[in-house]
Design a protein that fits this description.
Blueprint (H helix, E strand, L loop, with lengths): L15 H20 L3 E2 L5 E3 H8 L4 H6 L1 E4 L6 E4 L4 H10 L8 E10 L11 E10 L5 H17 L4 E7 L3 H17 L6 H6 L16 H5 L4 H4 L2 H16 L5 E2 L11 E9 L7 E7 L3 H6 L8 E7 H10 L11 E5 L2 H16 L4 E3 L6 H10 L4 E5 L1 H6 L1 E6 L7 E4 H10 L3
Parallel strand pairs: 1-5, 7-8, 12-13, 12-14
Antiparallel strand pairs: 2-4, 3-4, 5-6, 6-11, 7-9, 9-10, 10-11, 14-15, 15-16
Helix pairs in contact: 1-5, 5-10
The structure holds adenosine-5'-triphosphate and magnesium ion (MG).
Adenosine-5'-triphosphate (ATP) binds next to strand 6, strand 10, strand 11 and helix 12.
Length: about 425
């Protein structure tokens, strides 16, 4: 016997009892983004592997162990399912010349793929909404991103989250810091774990992000980035804080923030919660002034930029365990009909009701009145609409409340619209 085919581990079906949360989320997010003048962009899910290696960084968790990479057998190209959206978005903007004399406020949403160990809040196919502002030097736009997030949380009914902000400084100050880190960690070479040794010369900043308890003491003593920051970045960081204070957005400064991608400079931030266990980061981003020139492979394409991405599954989990209340969509009515003339009239009636903004399920598949009424009941609809020979003759519809003890009435079509709408809460 052939075995049933299972979904891929860490890749979830999202079923109707869940999708209405997604739809509420998506509608809210789209309204929110258009309120800030961001425009939608849609990129392919597969890209040349090189795009991610070059932008995210060769010595990062994503590139080293999390990418779904495969060979296109027709031409031997190495392709990768996108693990994040920023690199693709920059590629698309460059390929289509969108930045020519015009900064861009963009957003995208959709599935991302990372080969991680699946657990609550961590999946191999997960969803992000990504927001990118290209051609802006900040710090005003950096602040806009943080301010707009706090508005979104309010709209979604999310509480108990906080934002941590940090700065990574300029490329030059990072290089200086890097040299000092290497010198420092070299002194403890024998105590470094395998990951740290491997990263010592390629990406020492990532050692600071080590989750290994045995490494914590060494990490704690490492030179602080703050000591190496350039003056301009400090001014930028101060100005960002000033706007946030003026806008009444509380924040915490965390100069240990190291993002899992190499392309960031200056501003970095993460929105975190304590309510989701270990997977507490719901949204993260920052400035990436060097990435556009890097992907465009020429300084003539250079443009400052910043952006962020949020994890949709984590946000939904937060909404569902927090105070957010939304109701599943309920059809207004379920149309029950029996007999040829009645069925013809019922077809007309449901289309008429839909023309008038009502949600109506038309019974399909025949059967007795009694069997159809059962279906009406399990459909969740508020009313059964009944059309038999009598109603068809009179061009009327009988309306029977299904969720409350009220009597059935028979009315004309216009009146049925008013009645069904009036009873909505
Ligand atoms: P983490 O530290 O949790 O691995 P990250 O730094 O790798 O997160 P980013 O690349 O910044 O994550 O992605 C932005 C957001 O996408 C994260 O804050 C998180 O909410 C979400 N996210 C990232 N990886 C996953 C995943 N495997 N499953 C579900 N959501 C994820
Ligand atoms: Mg990660």
């Amino acid at each position: 016997m052939t075995k049933t085919i299972q979904a891929i581990r860490g890749m979830n079906d999202i079923l109707p009892n869940e999708t209405y949360w997604w739809e509420f989320f998506e509608d809210t997010v789209n309204d929110w983004l258009s309120a800030y003048g961001y425009q939608n962009i849609r990129m392919p899910i597969v890209e040349q592997t090189d795009l991610f290696v070059r932008s995210i960084g060769e010595v990062t968790d994503i590139v080293e162990k999390e990418m779904y990479t495969f060979v296109d057998h027709l031409n031997g190209d190495s392709l990768t399912l996108r693990p994040e959206g920023t690199a693709s978005c920059v590629r698309a903007v460059l390929a289509n010349n969108l930045l020519y004399q015009k900064p861009q406020r963009l957003y995208y949403s959709g599935p991302m793929f990372r080969h991680e160990r699946p657990q609550k809040g961590r999946y191999r196919q997960f969803h992000q909404v990504g927001v990118e502002a290209m051609g802006f030097a900040g710090p005003d736009i950096d602040a806009e991103h943080i301010v707009m997030c706090s508005r979104l949380w309010r709209k979604l009914g999310i509480t108990g989250v906080r934002v941590e902000i940090g700065t990574l400084g300029s490329a030059a100050s990072r290089a200086l810091h890097r040299t000092r880190l290497i010198k420092y960690f070299e002194q403890y070479f024998n105590d470094l774990d395998e990951d740290a040794r491997r990263r010592l010369y390629s990406n020492p900043l990532r050692i600071l992000d080590s989750k290994n308890p045995a490494m914590q003491e060494i990490v704690a003593g490492a030179p602080k980035l703050l000591e190496d920051l350039d003056e301009e970045s400090l001014v930028h960081f101060e100005a960002l804080q000033e706007i946030l204070r003026n806008q009444g957005v509380d924040f915490e400064i965390n100069l240990q923030l190291v993002r899992g991608l190499d392309y960031y400079n200056r501003t970095v931030f993460e929105w975190v919660t304590d309510r989701l266990g270990a997977q507490g980061t719901i949204c993260a981003g920052g400035r990436y002034d060097g990435l556009i020139a890097q992907i465009g492979a020429s300084s003539k394409h250079s443009a400052p930029a910043c952006g962020f991405a949020m994890g949709v599954e984590r946000l939904l989990a937060l909404m569902q365990t927090g105070g957010t209340e939304i109701s599943p969509p309920v059809p207004d009515a379920y149309m029950v009909h029996l007999g040829e003339a009645a069925t013809n009239f019922a077809w007309k009636t449901v289309e008429f009701l839909r023309n008038n903004g009502l949600k109506v399920i038309f019974h399909c598949g025949g059967g007795s009145f009694k069997a159809q009424m059962k279906k009406a009941d399990t459909s969740g609809a508020r009313f059964a609409l009944i059309i038999g020979d009598d109603e068809a003759q009179a061009e009327a519809v009988s309306i029977k409340p299904l969720r409350e003890a009220a009597s059935q009435v028979s009315v004309g079509l216009e009146e049925s619209v008013d009645l069904l709408k009036a009873s909505r809460e």
